[in-house]
Write a structure and sequence with these properties.
Its EC number is 1.5.1.2. The protein is 49% helix and 14% strand.
């Protein structure tokens, strides 16, 4: 069904649901404060990121409003205080059915282990007929989601990460075989308000979950370790943390902005006989490269099990 100023229902509206609502509304009102323009990349050009094209139908794709659904009345009361008039808040099973019935697009933001129960509840499947369902449930496949809905429900998977809360996130989308271009574009528009957005085949989403989804935790361990080194050498803790955080942010922005290979940036800092090469050799002695690579490998293996036993 074509989207025309759709109403969005967020099932399980927690931290990420709130970020999506606020990011989308900020982009509409022009109050965004993102330091760099969000990009959308496509699976046909995995190594390049292109600007969002085709602005002519953006008005039709702008949400008319939001419905936020949570499980309990207490959670609903807190959410109302958080969102104010940005969304209508409903709670309980009846609230889920009402929200899905009144919406054109449904964002499934529940925990993966309860996704089946939420979608299989009485009245939900019928309400999902001819609608777009976007799931951020890690490990829950498009095939599973399709089996819990209806044949006419369009299903898209999204894997956002925690920095979406400050609109510096990374989201990867994957769509079912029958997804139309407008649904894909609408979903890309929504998540690109939270940072960068890339489209990949579903087979890559477990690795995406490990690298992009869990990555902020791994990056923070590295950040903390760098700061610890600064503290050991006499820097105050707050100064060491600030320096380490800005170093990681600056290096990452150089890669994204210039397109330079990380090794090239590393080499540009490394002078013969200097302190940088001494530090790099110490890192190599600690097998940091293989440790980090194996970290992603192990996290990917675990991510592949998250959606099991939910059929």
């Amino acid at each position: 069904m074509p989207l025309n100023k759709p109403t969005i229902c967020v099932l399980g509206c927690g931290t990420m649901g709130i970020a999506i609502i606020r990011g989308t509304l900020d982009s509409i009102t022009g109050s965004a404060s993102v330091q760099s323009s969000p990009k959308i990349a496509h699976a046909t050009a995995v190594n390049s990121t292109v600007e969002n094209e085709g602005e002519e139908d953006d008005d039709l794709l702008r949400p008319a409003g939001f419905i936020a659904c949570v499980s309990h009345q207490e959670s609903a009361a807190k959410l109302k205080k958080t969102l104010g008039d940005q969304a209508r808040v409903l709670h309980g099973a009846a609230g889920n059915v009402q929200g899905v019935s009144e919406a054109d697009v449904i964002l499934l933001c529940t925990k993966p282990q309860v996704a089946k129960a939420v979608l299989s509840a009485p009245g939900i499947q019928e309400a999902l007929t001819d609608k777009l369902l976007v799931s951020i449930c890690a490990g829950v496949t498009i095939e599973q989601l399709q089996s819990w809905t209806t044949p006419t429900t369009t299903v898209i998977r999204a894997m956002p990460n925690t920095p979406c809360k400050i609109r510096e996130g990374m989201t990867v989308l994957s769509c079912g075989p029958n997804t139309d271009a407008q649904s894909m574009r609408f979903t890309s528009n929504i998540f690109s308000t939270l940072g960068r957005c890339r489209i990949l085949d579903e087979k890559h989403l477990d690795a995406v979950t490990a690298l992009a989804g869990s990555g902020p935790a791994f990056a923070c361990v590295m950040l903390e370790a760098l700061a610890d080194g600064g503290v050991m050498m006499g820097l105050p803790r707050d100064v060491a943390t600030e320096l380490a955080a800005q170093v990681l942010q600056g290096a990452a922005r150089m890669v994204l902005t210039t397109g330079a290979h990380p090794a090239a940036i590393k080499d540009s800092v490394t002078t013969p006989g200097g302190c940088t090469i001494a530090g790099l050799l110490t890192m190599e002695d600690g097998k940091i490269r293989s440790t980090l690579a194996r970290t992603i490998q192990e996290a990917t293996t675990v991510a592949s099990t998250l959606g099991r036993d939910k059929k």
